[in-house]
Amino acid sequence: MATVTTPRRAPGGAGVMPDTPGWARWANDHRKWLFAAPAMAFVAALIVIPLGWTAWLSLTDAEGSVRAESEFVGFRNYLDVLSDTDRFWPAVGRTAAFTVVALLFEVVLGMAVALLLWRPFKGQKWVRVAILMPLVATPVAVGMMWRLIFDPNIGLANQVLGWVGIGPQPWLAGQHSALPTTIFIDVWQWTPMVVLILLAGLTSLSEEPQEAARIDGASSWQRFRHVTLPLVMPTVIVAILLRGIDALKTFDILYATKGRGGGSFHEVETLNVYAYGLSFDYNEYGVSSTVLILFFLIIIGSMWALTARRKEAKR
Amino acid sequence: MKASPAYRVFRVVALVVVVLSLVTPLLWMIAASFKTNVDIYDTGKALVFSPTLDNYATVLKQSHYVSFIGNSLWVAFAATVLSLILGVPAAYSMSRFNMKKSALVVLMARVIPGVSLLVPWYYVFSNLQLVGGFTVLILSHMFVSLPLIVYIMMGFFDGLPEELEEAALVDGLTHIGAFRRITLPLSVPGIATAGILSFIFSWNNFMFALVLSGADTKTLPVAIFDFVGYASIDWGGLMAAATVVTLPIMVIALFVQKYVVSGLTAGATKG
């Protein structure tokens, strides 16, 4: 262990022996960037430059083959996309609806389950295992699993409804019920994520404010509303941030349950599904890049708004 | 303080409901994978049926599924190891030298929609004749793994006292030597957490393989779609294929639960 009498760095670097070879000295002095540079180079080559390229493509009429010539068309794609009330704006609406509704359920249910698990009890370990399972399950497989359960004819869901006297529902097959059903699947798979994050937040809270409120005679709802919730709010916002980013980008379960284009009526076509279809089903690279850049701006905008909220909550 | 009896009853009931609603669908999938298609269609045989391994035989024999298992393992393993090699030292530098801007750039990768990179990647890699090969697939999965690993390891290094390294410097080690001989061995739990999560996310990844894999390099999440036809679905085969993808990862998660949870919640309660 270090002691208080640790000598400060001598010039040339503490610990560098006189017989240290030159290259090792150099490496030692430049370790900051020696360590960080390979990862940064990877990020620059595979993420920053491609993203810049996407931005460039969005200003061209690139389509068809990746070897085809393309021409600069300025902001024409942006005007086309932003005035497209047929596919683009409905996709924006679905993305927003999917994200907001899924997040709402996930945070409320997640908080409820986290509070149930907060105080230790016998068998808690097994409940935690159950919570972990949907989280680590492969999303595509989860989509297929729910496809069977929600099958209008042979699925478990309609069978269970039958027991309580409710008629069969179309679920994923219905034009209006498909999006809510995919939201349900997202809530099933990702509420556990919110539970784990909130549980980590709750566990890190100190006991004293709770104790004080109890002595003052606060009811359990009052304690939650006025003591626990404000204290855990920063963690709630982290959960919303992390889940929100992924919910906006949901692709796997939508593609697994409804296939290309979000179904025959584009029932579940969100921005991500729309951009994917434009790129790889129709090879409309220019237009798809435009949609992607707009999508990216939407994500950054919502993140920025949430982070601002978080700073407020921490105050 | 003891909870009231009424609350304790309520809590038990609520927890049973939670556990059942999370686990039943998964068990239903696994059960269906052991049913014949006739039994799957017969709602009367929901719970009582004579199990069969036919679906697994179909999956393993007909569709090169075994080699797809190998592909998934190889891609997830390679992407994880390479990301650890790049990511752990980078996270160390970013944590010790407080490189906030560089960290932000790496973490932006968690925010960017994957499709927006797939288009330029597809342009470059198809011109290089690399689409369909493992190289591109592994690189694309590193896009998911690297930021995840940097994020988890930065949090880990932030919590590792610097005094230990300073003591090693006094004992004559160089900074890099101290990192190698003191910090790295102490970081094994963090590296395990980051590695396991990276493996799971890569194994589960679907979109990159959908575009970038070829017939020989297909990973399991893409191969599942072989059981979905235009006209009809082979439900038994589909559920067996889904189980083959999902069950191993769930079993692994069961054994390394602690690491998975700490990785998923990394950084959630600080900053």
From TrEMBL, chain A:
Where exactly are the transmembrane stretches of this chain? 33-56, 96-117, 129-149, 187-206, 227-245, 285-306
Which PROSITE patterns is this protein grouped with? Answer: ABC_TM1 (PS50928)
Does the keyword Transcription regulation feature in the UniProt annotation?
Answer: no
List the GO terms this entry assigns under cellular component, sorted alphabetically: plasma membrane
Q: How does it sit in the membrane?
A: Multi-pass membrane protein
State the protein's name: Carbohydrate ABC transporter membrane protein 1, CUT1 family
Principal localization reads membrane
What keywords are assigned to this protein? Membrane, Transmembrane, Transmembrane helix, Transport
* Record InterPro entries: MetI-like, MetI-like_sf, Sugar_ABC_transporter
PANTHER family in the record, alphabetically?
Answer: GLUCOSE IMPORT SYSTEM PERMEASE PROTEIN GLCT (PTHR43759:SF1), TREHALOSE TRANSPORT SYSTEM PERMEASE PROTEIN SUGA (PTHR43759)
Top-level taxon of origin: Bacteria
A biological process term (GO) from this entry: transmembrane transport
Q: What is the protein's species of origin? A: Micromonospora chaiyaphumensis
Name the protein family: Belongs to the binding-protein-dependent transport system permease family.
Listed Pfam families: BPD_transp_1 (PF00528)
Instruction: Name its cellular compartments.
Output: Cell membrane; Membrane
Show where the ABC transmembrane type-1 domain sits.
92-306
UniProtKB/TrEMBL annotation, chain B:
**Localization per record:** Cell membrane
Looking up SUPFAM superfamilies in the UniProt record yields: MetI-like
Membrane topology recorded in Swiss-Prot or TrEMBL: Multi-pass membrane protein
The UniProt record lists the ABC transmembrane type-1 domain at 69-256
Gene Ontology cellular-component terms listed:
plasma membrane
GO terms (BP aspect): transmembrane transport
Q: Name one Pfam family in it.
A: BPD_transp_1
**Membrane-crossing segments per the record:** 12-31, 73-92, 104-124, 130-154, 190-215, 235-256
Keywords, sorted A to Z: Cell membrane, Membrane, Transmembrane, Transmembrane helix, Transport
Q: Cell cycle: present as a keyword of the record?
A: no
Predominant subcellular localization, coarse grouping? membrane
| UniProt family annotation | Belongs to the binding-protein-dependent transport system permease family.
**Protein name per Swiss-Prot or TrEMBL:** Carbohydrate ABC transporter membrane protein 2, CUT1 family
